[in-house]
Amino acid sequence: MGVEPENTLRSFVHAEQAGMDAVELDLHLSKDGALAVMHDAAVDRTTDGRGLIAEKTLSELRELDAGRGERVPVFEEVLDAIRSPVQAEIKDVAAARALAEVMLRRDLAGRVEVSSFHDAAVAEIAQLVPGVRTVLIASRWEGDVVDRAKAAGAATLALNIRRLTLEVVEQAHAEGLKVIGWVVNTQDQLRLVRALGLDGATTDYPEIRRAGRFTA
């Protein structure tokens, strides 16, 4: 989203062409059950429309401009537009069930990693899709975040880089969990990723990876 309209096919293609290991996207259910790719529950911030995704049909969402003439994509379109692995963030349990249906139909457990802030959604997708890799996301957390991830069946924790400590990273690694830091948009943050020994990082600027090889 740092260089292209957020959560659009244009942005995902850019990320893939920039050599990123995976593309992260966000999923909400439309009024008629489509897996719309958008971060917010409402369309106001990232399109020229107003209102909640849950109160709009896919046809209504298609009429919106998501930036530079891009349309709001659905999950299946992203899968067809790029070849990269995908990390799909689900916003609620209902979206988890819809995502599970697509993953099972298209045999996506090896390509799509599923993440969520909601423990119940992580646990739900893990139960519905055998072998799926799951990620528990947290911005603010208590001392039980590693236990929460294990209880939900997550293999990875995605944590706010601004609050992440070495103690949490070491605790997670000791329990066999990977740790990803987000959002890493500066060279200082990239240095911190390496200093903490993280397993990955999420960025809004794909080119930071190339630059970071020489300056981080």
From TrEMBL:
Domain GP-PDE, chain residue ranges per copy: 1-213
Residue ranges the record marks as coiled coil: none
PROSITE patterns: GP_PDE
InterPro entries on file: GP_PDE_dom, PLC-like_Pdiesterase_TIM-brl
One Pfam family it belongs to: GDPD
Gene3D superfamilies hit by this protein: Phosphatidylinositol (PI) phosphodiesterase (3.20.20.190)
Designated name of the protein: Glycerophosphodiester phosphodiesterase
Lineage: Bacteria, Bacillati, Actinomycetota, Actinomycetes, Kitasatosporales
